[in-house]
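ok here's tRNA (guanine-N(1)-)-methyltransferase:
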Amino acid sequence: MRIDVLTIFPSFFDVLEVSLLGKARGAGLLDVRVHDLRDWTHDRHRTVDDTPYGGGAGMVMKPEPWGEALDAVTAGSERPVIVFPSPAGELFTQRTARAFVETDHLVFGCGRYEGIDERVFAYAATLGEVRLMSLGDYVLNGGEVAAMAMIEAVGRLIPGVVGNPDSLVEESHEDGLLEYPSYTKPSAWRGYEVPPVLLSGNHGAIAAWRHEQQLLRTRERRPDLLVDEE
Ligand code: ADE
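and the structure:
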């Protein structure tokens, strides 16, 4: 899978070198290319923003560098998915991550300031499938941290990136519920005991207990996830 990132802060993505995704890149499972949007400016100051038409606070990212950058990274690619992280986008979920991992080519366009000139999204839609995606109902300073989160969520679903594929199946959100609690040795620690059922060796009872814990947790912490089932 190929991922291109367009940003004015390429160094934000240096951490992709470490950890699981670094290994995935080394193994050739994931080809991430991070580009400085300013490479597609042509003035001495490498300007990427300007004041908004109609007035208002802040600066808006100019369309021209985005147009050239999108042309360059999508050249030769069959309609990639072009993601613009935005608090005004649709919610990114595990379901989105599973859909994105099926694509061969993802492009992340990281906006800063008050946003990107709206015409860029219309133009991008002529090159690929445009998705404005939000991480949640809060505002970050720009798309970089959101893009990193999405790259990690998608990257770890690439077959071979996570060592034991079973661990992908049993985690939070894969079955619409939060994950059950986990314990390891010792069975008693500072007065806290591991639930006895987990030491029973009764696999049926353990599976039933875990499912019940998933439901309890989800009802308590994220009742919004259960609305379809109740
Ligand atoms: N950019 C700024 N805030 C964001 C958010 N909540 N999600 C995605 N991108 C963003």
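+1. The chain is about 30% helix and 20% strand.
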